[in-house]
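Typical record is below.
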Amino acid sequence: MAELVIFFEQIYRILFLLIPVLVSVAMIVWLDRRVWAFVQKRRGPNVVGPFGLFQTLADALKYIFKEIIIPASSNKVIFILAPIVTMTLALIAWAVIPFSETFVLADINVGILYLFAVSSLGVYGIIMGGWASNSKYPFLGAIRSAAQMVSYEVSIGVIIINVLLCVGSLNLSDIVLAQKDLWFVIPLFPMFIIFFISALAETNRPPFDLPEAEAELVAGYQTEYSGMMYAMFWLGEYANILLMCAIGSILFLGGWLSPIDLFPLNVIPAPIWLILKILFLFILFALIKAIVPRYRYDQLMKLGWKIFLPFSLIYVVLTASFLMYFDLLPGN
C-alpha cells in the first residue's frame, strides 16, 4: 500500500511539472511570433482569443485533425518513432531543473551530466526522422543537424567546466546556491555569450537553422511529416529552447535567486525568478531570429571549431589558474 501511495505521489509530481511545461511551450510560440511582429512593425497573432493568445491552441487543433501521411518508401517504424523520441527527450530533461531549493523533481548529484547526456541524445530523433523519410531534403537536414549539434555540444561542455570549477559540484541546486553573492554571468561573461550562441545552434534556431532551412531544404528533416507527428517535432524543438534558457539561467543568472535582496523583491516566490530569467533569455532568442540573417554552413562550422572551442579551452585554463592562485577552489 505504501509503495502505491509513493507511486501516485511521483505521478502527481511529474504531471505537476509536465503540464506547466507543455502550457509554457504553447505560450512561448505566441510570444515568439509577437516579438517577430514587433521587430517587423506588424501585429502578429491577434485574432483568436484576447491578443491572439489562443492562436497556438487553434494551430494545435488543426494539427490534431490533419491527416498523418506516411511516405510509402519510408521506414515506417523509425519514421513514427522519430518525433516521439524528440519530444520525449525534450521533456524528460526537465526532471532535474530546480525551480527552488525544495522544488525539484529529481535532485541528483550529477544533474549537469544528466542534462548533457539527454541533450546529446536529442540529435537521434532528427537523424531518425531524416533517414527514415527516404527523401533527399530530410536526409540532408539530418546530416547537417548531426554535425551542427555535435560541434556545438563540445563548446557547451567546455563552458560548463568553467562553472563546475567555480562550484565544485555537479548538482544544479549547488550551482545556484554558489551564486548567492555573485552571479557567474559577471566573472564568466564571455562564456555566457558563447553559451547563448551555442544554445542557438544546439536548438537549430536562426541564424543556425540550417537543418530545416526552408530556402534550400523546403523544411529539412521535417519535410515529409504532417499532422500531429509534425507538431511533436515542433513541441520538442520549443521544449528544448525553454530547457536551454533554463540551463543558462541556472548556470549564469543565479537560477531562482533574486537579483537584489531588497525586502519587496523577497516576497516574490523563488520559482517566479527562474521563470522571469527563462523568459528574458527566450526573448533574446526571438529577437535573434527576427534580426540576424542565416549563416552559411562553412561559417557555422568555422565558428564552432575554430573560434568557440579554442576560446573556451583558453578560458578554462584562465579560470583554473585564477582560482588556484587566489586559493578559491571549492573545498580548499
Notes: The first helix runs from residue 2 to 39.
